[in-house]
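Changelog excerpt

This revision adds worked examples to the README so contributors can see how folded entries look when concatenated. The first example is reproduced verbatim below.
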Amino acid sequence: MSVDKQELDQGKSVRQLTADELQEIEETFDPELRFRRLVWPLTVITATVLFLLSCYHFYTAGFGIPQATVHRGLHLGVTLLVVFLSFSAFGKKEMKPGAFTPLGLPLVDWILGIAGLIAALYVPWIYSDLAFRVGNPLPIDVIMGTVLIVVLLEAVRRSMGWPLPVIALLFIGYAYFGRAMPGIFVHPGASWSGIVNHLYLTSQGIYGTALGVIATYVFHFVLFGVMATRIGLGQLFIDVASALAGRYAGGPAKVSVLSSALLGSISGSSIANTVTTGALTIPAMIRIGYPRHFAAAVEAAASTGGQITPPVMGAVAFLMIEYLGLPLTTILTAALVPAFMHFFGVLVQVHLEARRLGLRGLSAAELPNAWKVLKEGWLSVAPLIVLIAILLSGRTPFSAAFWSITACIAVLIIQQVRASGVADGLRGAAHGVWEGFILGAKQSLSVTAAAALVGVVIGVVTLTGVGFKVAYMVTGIAQDWASSIHSLLDFLPFELMGVPTLTLLFTLILTAIVCILMGCGIPTTANYIIMVAVAAPILGLLGVEPLVAHFFVFYYGVLADVTPPVAMAAYAGAGIANANAFKAGNTAFRLSMGKALVPFVFAFQPALLLVTDNFTWTAFFLAFGGTILGIWALAAAVSNWLFAPLHWYERAGLVLAAILLVAPDLIATLIGILLMAPVAARQLLQNRRRSSG
């Protein structure tokens, strides 16, 4: 019933971190933002290239995209050049100009950046002859392809760290040493020229779908997110969330959940979301009595939920368009209920924790006025309305991005003119567009390099067929386990689960583990692309609908951001809260149980996604109601509180009830309700006695 005294004492002295401190935390846990400091005139050169890159994409979004290989090659080449201008090899922030550091940049970085630019543009340059080169590459083709692969490995290592380059190297090694592989993984192998031919000259590798989606869709929505934040949309979300949820028990935690859901709908990074909203919500949570690690975990769990929230979904929504061939409206509709379930799960736990600890809400003096907030900031919502309206109209996503960015620029001009007059306002707006376009391009650098390197992984998968080999191996293991468990349950007078159901259950568990492990240290988009190639075929062998399989691997890949030992979003929150990072990571994973539970529900009952085959409202409401009760029961069990403290056997009963409630079966749901009901009744009675006492 009480908070740890040391944490309470620390909470009394909690302070708001400065912008520099927040930036340092963000850079510590997000390598994508560890930009080096450049000296003049290299600062101007880099900024100009970034601005022109954004202008190019803004123009192509509105007036048409060039031929795919040309578009992708140009985007990749310029990106690689700027990556080596912006990220140092070993984290050194700044260097002075010298003989081996022209303009303050090491000579090797100039060589790598220019080599990457040339190698990336080489394929578009020979595009007219490409059909004659594929399968029979010239020596210069192999040289250029080798250069690009090496440069990509180093670019991603600098901008994201080691995990993805190591995975890519392992896949390349697998392609080359196929004859030496054990058992089911053996294959004829490929020569280096054959590997380069497939990865460099075909659309199955570096220049494939992953890079295409980044260059065609993701860049535009990253730019939109930056421009929307610049006109105050992010702050408006936080203020509205504070006005709506701040007054209730544990108010700052509920503000954190709601504001992160809103901000995450336009953000592509769970770490950036954690730092942006956590700068305000984490100190407030600590101040009213939440333990520091819990405050950090709440913000991290809520912020990672932004990656699964429409309309952007961490840019994965646009990848799904390409992979599934479905309209964006279908994908966004399918994402609605699972995203709601995640935030509902976090919200229930912060509410129960607040009740358990007896925490207050924020006073009226501590809260913004909702009417005043909307009156002053309503204009900043206009670009988001434009974005959603165009997306729902069925027009292309890049068209929606073009008009929503245009709306951001228009709002910025209006805001600046109102504040400073016409002349100064127009100058201020121009400066705002300049900075926004630079930052938008800057934030797309690492994800572009990663997407191109993921193309290497995808290329090896298509070259060797390893994805289907993994699928057969996993489903074989799951089927063996299912048969063994089914035999052990023969003593029951009824069949609890058949072998096919148990096989799917174990396959889902193994797939989830693979997704979490592969997601450690890899951003959402890159992880999703890899999982589509490696993990989604596993579920496809068991007849799981493609949309369901893609959502399953996507959700568990995102879960890696709050899964120790590499729970980067939780560690960023812990940095703000000055809390134990590992403890914050464990708690964030516990708070994200809705995100962990719901994929199993929609795998067994696809009606939860609203748009799958054979959808019925009866199946939907059974799954929806059972999941709501199941999340609440599990939240109570892990929080040790429903309406009053729980006995150990009540907690065990609630865990069992939660498992049965989320099962897509009416009998199991009714049994779960029967298990939960007496616990809830005793809790209500005990709470009433406590209140009267």
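The second example, added in the same revision:
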Amino acid sequence: MDIRAAWRDQARYTVFDSDYGDGAGFRILADVWRTDPQRSPHLHAIALNTRPGPDLLPGFHRMPQAEPGITLDLLSAPIDAALAQLTARVDLFRLHGLQEAGAGFARALARVAAPQARLLAHGLTPEQIGALEAQGFVFEPCADGDRGADKQCARFASRKPRPPTPPLPERRAIVLGAGIAGSAACERLCARGWEVTLVERHERPAMEASGNRAGIFMPLVSRDDNIPTRLTRAAYLFALRHWERLGGIGPGRAIEGQACGVLQLARDAGHAEVQRAIAAGGALPAEFAEWLEAPQAESLLGLPAPDGGWLFRQGGWARPGSVCEAMLAACGGRLQQRFGVGSVRIAWQDGQWSVHDQHGAELARAPTLILANGAGARQVPQAAPLPLTAMRGQVSHLPASMLPALPLVLCREAYVTPPSHGLVSAGATYDVDDNAELSPASHEENLQRLRSLLSDPQAAQGAPLAGRVGFRCIAPDRLPLVGRLPDFDAAGATERLRDVPRHPGLYGLLGYASRGLIWAGWAAELLAAQLEGEPLPLESALVDALDPARFVLRARRTSRGPQTADN
């Protein structure tokens, strides 16, 4: 087929490849796209990864590209599982290397096929061809350029009703909040050509939870690779790739911090035994996560580590404000910034959201409004029913001269960073308290945890009270809220996420708890893809786990109470 004719009149052209291999097929496709003056504005390639590596652990991986018109998603999963979790409309399928895959993928492949999608295959078995025909693919002779031994070509001609393609949005948005969540939202939307107005009550970015001197970035590991682990892994790996595109992290680079590694110590011998079993499974490449026994950990750290710990070589610390600055700088002229506006109110009228200051002056107007203002979202009437909590966190700033010089971030129940500008950050507390002032009790709690980490009961003795208090926005399940906000009052007897009524044009990037540094860019990418109708960069089950409307369904289940067989 002539792919250039196929993509000519489409705003986005999506290709699925069943084997990425060494990437040669993707590079050829991208070169054809680049050299076609009548190309689709956006080429989206989705490919199964068959060569696992430290950056391609199980799951979906969005790989940043130099050109904004090209997107590459690599899926590390068997084809049937990957397609079952894919949210996309595919225009062209390139199938090869599937002789041992069975025919179970056919139904899921048809589910994501766009009307009149084309299929180019090599080596499909008769069983696979039959299964695809049963799902609406019509096999026909290949065009001259696609002929060859064992080649098969088909088009998707199913008459089953297909969900309508939503219209492209008007690319104008307001983002409320200039912390790391809001800054990421601006950057990801501006990168797609949106015009964005950023509204912030403070005089500059990163004045609340994103204002700490240092935040740490690291993944999670778990025995069952549960939902929080998978989500955190996806966000962490995206952050590492994305920060490089923004200018990198380290001295003289765009982001202040160090990719110095993180050592997470085991809590005790029992905890170490569980972690040792995870490591023995062999699923985690050493560059991503390596279990160190006590002698190895102590040699690296230069301090006691009696039960060993996980070494995350790619982890480290970063100043969240510098990440905000890098993201906002990348927005260029598409971003308008409204700082120091104080309290605001919002209103929906005639298909537009408007934001007004406390004197009634209009600050911005757009069809899309994104709440990225953390716990401040609780003051917005449409978001008030969401079960969000503001959790106080106090970080202690300690003179570096009072502590041993650490080569990396050290953590367990708390963390301590290597020195920067003569200070070390240690903390942070989790307090149910609305006091924004530094607390001697919280300071002492940080010092006690620090001494436990360092195995030194005298460490930082007499350290002055210094640090910072911030308030994290936390949901009951400790997962972020990413997506369109639900209308609790209109929910009625809704039982499924897709049926929950939503507020028009109102979205949330909320509930990042203490992991906003890595959640921010990736969650903004997910939301931007939802707004644009792009293939999503995450398995659909994990997208559902982040949907703000999950709390509508949970509220209904709670209100019904325990059910019996007679009910």
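Reviewer comment on example two: The radius of gyration is 25 Å. Residues 227-246 form the longest helix (20 residues).
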